[in-house]
Amino acid sequence: MTSRQSYRVQAYNTSKQSENKIHDDTVARRFGFSGGLVPGVDVMAYMMHLPVEKWGRAFLERGLIEARFVKPVYDGEIAELAGDESDGVLSIEVQSRGELCATGSAFLPASAPAISLADFTQVAPVAERKPVSTASYEIGKWLGTLPRDWKGDAAGEYLADIRETDPIFAREGLGHPGMLQKVMNKLLVDNAILGPWIHVGSRMQLLSAAKADEEITARARVTGNYDKKGHRFVELDALVVANGTTPLAHCHHIAIYQPREQAAA
């Protein structure tokens, strides 16, 4: 038996003013896009609406989701999400402008896997960021982040930014797991000065429901740094941690840290 879910959201580019100019209309057009890209972490947050709607708090405590970004979603455009469940796996597609923009899947394990903090070395981000190079993300290198919190109105503002309508977050004082993906991006940004760069995919095993007022950091080991079709890719194996003590998510994160136009320059 299969069942289908659907969800519509008007996409919003939360990063127009960010350091990553791939979200800026003028710069993105130089890379062949129609305008500034809605961040992949936010598209993934849209995708999370479907498993949260299906499994509720249980998904926030132990759900598994993965996403791959195929084509851009643009500010103001309608993103159409469809989720088809078969044998306990929810397959998710995101379409916009009649094009497939992202694919992924979600699953609810019987329990969250046991993860040890000791397996993920805690380090500070670099004291002085330098222009990105292959040395910034050497394979085996450990990366850390500056702390990030969503205290006060920040968690609610984030829900508004991603157009999240599920009442569970406000009702139970929970942080949206899309926030954890934003912290994953900080692993790259806090350790190098990047030009325009693109998040292309993630896998996230949730380990505990995040609280809206927690301080969040990430600990990551670089597991990949390679060239593919002229782009420079980085892959991270990371643990997102609340208040320095509580594992929130085990993540695999993939990004193009130097698009081929930038790498050639």
Task: Summarize this structure as a short list of keywords or feature phrases.
about 260 residues, alpha+beta, 11-stranded antiparallel beta sheet, 7 helices, about 20% helix, globular
Shape: globular
Work out the number of β strands.
Answer: 11
Instruction: Give unreliable regions as ranges.
Output: none
Radius of gyration (Å): 18 Å
Mean pLDDT: 94
Approximately what portion of the residues adopt beta-strand conformation? 35-45%
SSE order, one letter for each helix or strand = EHHHEEEEEEHHHEEEEH
The percentage helix is 10-25%
Please give the largest β-sheet.
Answer: 11 strands, antiparallel
Separation of the first and last Cα atoms: 52 Å
Structural class designation: alpha+beta
The count of helical stretches stands at 7
Question: How would you concisely characterize the structure shown here?
Answer:
By secondary structure, the chain is α+β, with helices and mostly antiparallel strands.
Write up what this structure looks like.
With 265 residues, the chain is of the alpha+beta class. Helix content is 22%, strand content 35%. The protein has helices at residues 25-30, 40-55, 57-62, 154-161, 168-172, 178-189, 260-264, and strands spanning 2-10, 64-69, 78-86, 89-96, 99-107, 142-144, 148-149, 198-206, 215-228, 231-242, 246-258. Strands 1, 2, 3, 4, 5, 6, 7, 8, 9, 10 and 11 form an eleven-stranded antiparallel beta sheet that branches. It is globular and about 45 Å long.
Helix and strand topology:
Layout: E1 2-10, H1 25-30, H2 40-55, H3 57-62, E2 64-69, E3 78-86, E4 89-96, E5 99-107, E6 142-144, E7 148-149, H4 154-161, H5 168-172, H6 178-189, E8 198-206, E9 215-228, E10 231-242, E11 246-258, H7 260-264
Antiparallel strand pairs: 1-3, 2-5, 2-8, 3-4, 4-5, 6-9, 7-9, 8-11, 9-10, 10-11
